[in-house]
Amino acid sequence: MRKYYEKQLNSMHESLLKMGALCEAAIASCAKALLNDDEDMRQKTAETEQDINLMESDIEHQCVRLLLHQQPMASDLRHVTAAQKMITDLERIGDQAADIAELSCYMRGSSVKSDVHIADMARAIRKMVSESLEAFIEKDAEKAHAVIAYDDVVDGLFNKIKDELIERLRSDSTVAGECLDLLMIAKYFERIGDHAENLAECVLYYLGVSKMAC
């Protein structure tokens, strides 16, 4: 019975990591769609987002089965509870990556995106998501704390982009529409960073470092 339970727990864990990998792929493809005017990457992001949605439903069912049939205790219960919260944040990351890819259609040929730090922001939030998942895999509280602290870097980049866009508008009012679209894209990236911070908080809860439910 214990072996079967551990098999179910490991299956849930592996599914969660696959979902995380899909989110990393969605971030990479939406960034390429934006920065390279790549239509294939826009379509790939949309397809990946659908796969993420399916995985969220599948993992939620796995978690419910574990809770109802196995009634996990202590660290196992924290593992399942953290997974339930993490899949919600991962699903939202997929949604926001898809939103960025969709908005990138309006940025075709735009010079504005090369004048601001949007590429740096895309790299920063991908780093946050990747390292929060590494912290989960490695059960590394220190790495989780580092991800949480790194959200300040992402917030700083958002503010920098906002200031850069204001300056660009002052010098050329004809790019107002592009600036607004790019500000919205930067906001979606910032939200992905917030979800990555949530993932790291869940890791701390799973490890028993944080007493607060994630």
Describe the structure in your own words.
The relative contact order is 0.15. The protein is elongated, with a radius of gyration of 19 Å. The protein has helices at 2-36, 39-70, 74-104, 118-138, 141-171, 176-206. The mean pLDDT is 92. It has 214 residues and is mainly α.
Q: What's the number of helices?
A: 6
The main sheet comes to: none
State mean pLDDT (0 to 100 scale): 92
Shape by Cα distribution: elongated
Rg computed from alpha carbons, rounded to a whole number of angstroms: 19 Å
The secondary-structure class comes to mainly alpha
Q: Percentage of helical residues?
A: over 70%
Helices and strands, in order, run as HHHHHH
Separation, N- and C-terminal Cα atoms? 29 Å
Low-confidence stretches: none
- Number of separate strands: 0
Query: Strand portion, in percent?
Result: under 5%
Structure keywords:
214 residues; mainly alpha; 6 helices; elongated
List the helices and strands and how they pair.
Blueprint: H1 2-36, H2 39-70, H3 74-104, H4 118-138, H5 141-171, H6 176-206
The gist of it:
The chain has 214 residues and is an all-alpha fold. Helices cover 85% and strands 0% of the residues. α4 packs antiparallel against α5.
